[in-house]
Specification:
Length: 329
């Protein structure tokens, strides 16, 4: 009986995911109107998004918590992720390994919401994982370290002293363990010189800071377009059902811009409508997936025929198309 119930639950979840991504799957099945013929193969890979809506918030198969709503929790594999809003439009994430009790927070925009989340879950903070040095990602480091004695891990590529309280500097090729769950570190310069992301391959999750947003990417404060495009390619090379946890709720404005440069992208039009409905209800749009970004994020699609036509760059290389798209944003 338990197996039958489990099978029924899985079937319902699969139907929900298929319905949610129907416009995307249709576009990919048609080749996505892109010069990337292998993109259609993504259809064959099942998407896995299991995060639930916040308590008391409208339900959405793609949501956890909004920058204007309550936190939410979900469990996939061995690691539990608890997402909650901070500041005006930031998200922060608690990562918990139930087998050891280890708990990390990805970036520290604001101490009070992080402490409230830890209290609500009954978890003890053991690690801080910083993606880059900006104040809205490191502002709570010192206070949280003083309170909890946690280890602060951050990118070695940022200038000395830019990551408050850093105990361990990491770069591409390093691994970071949160209990028994291991993240691989990737260098993703562009937004800042030393930006990194934390990829948990066994969990199919990546925490990207300000390198990538849903239908957007970070501003080039300390890097070049060439660097940022290379950084984004590291994320889009991950399995298509990898969940991408961005650090800000910028999706609606990003979607409107994306439509302006790729107006005939049907998957993008459908996603914009979905985002408008969800944001009007206060429902979040993070996490996204690699598959969604490949189909609808202009900063992941410099090879798109439609995008190149809009920009008047049909014969340009991908870096030039990416740079012009970033300039227009």
């Amino acid at each position: 009986r338990a197996q039958n119930l489990r099978a029924t639950h899985v079937g319902r979840r699969m139907r929900s995911v298929i319905q949610r991504h129907a416009p995307l799957l249709r576009l990919l099945a048609q080749g996505g109107q892109t010069r990337r013929p292998g993109l259609a193969r993504l259809v064959a890979t099942p998407l896995r998004t299991t995060l639930s809506a916040a308590p008391g918030a409208p339900s959405s198969s793609s949501s956890t918590a909004s920058a204007s709503s309550s936190p939410a929790a979900a469990t996939t594999g061995e690691m539990e992720v608890y997402q909650f809003p901070c500041l005006q439009d930031n998200y922060s994430f608690l990562l918990h390994d139930p087998s050891t009790g280890a708990t990390a927070v990805v970036d520290t925009p604001e101490v009070a919401p992080i402490e409230a989340a830890l209290k609500e879950k009954g978890w003890k903070l053991t690690h801080i994982l910083n993606t880059h040095h900006h104040w809205d990602h490191t502002g709570g480091n010192a206070e949280l370290k003083a309170r909890h004695g946690c280890e602060v891990i951050g990118p070695s590529g940022e200038r000395k002293g830019e990551i408050p309280g850093m105990d361990r500097a990491v770069c591409e090729g390093d691994e970071v363990a949160v209990g028994n769950v291991v993240a691989r570190v990737l260098d993703t310069p562009g937004h800042t010189a030393g930006h990194v992301v934390y990829h948990f391959p066994t969990e199919k999750k990546v925490f990207v800071g300000d390198t990538m947003f849903a239908m957007g990417c970070g501003r080039l404060f300390e890097g070049t377009a060439d660097q940022m495009w290379s950084s984004i390619q590291k994320i889009t090379a991950m399995p298509p059902d990898t969940e991408v946890f961005c650090a800000h709720e910028y999706t609606l404005s990003n979607a409107k811009f994306a439509v302006s440069v790729e107006p005939d992208n049907e998957a993008l039009q459908a996603r914009l409508r979905e985002v408008e409905v969800n944001r009007a209800k206060g429902v979040p749009t993070v996490p996204t997936t690699v598959a969604q970004e490949l189909a609808t994020n202009p900063f992941c699609r410099p090879d798109s025929v439609l995008l190149r036509r809009t920009l008047g760059l049909e014969g340009a290389d991908d870096v030039a198309v990416f740079a012009e798209t970033r300039r227009r944003k």
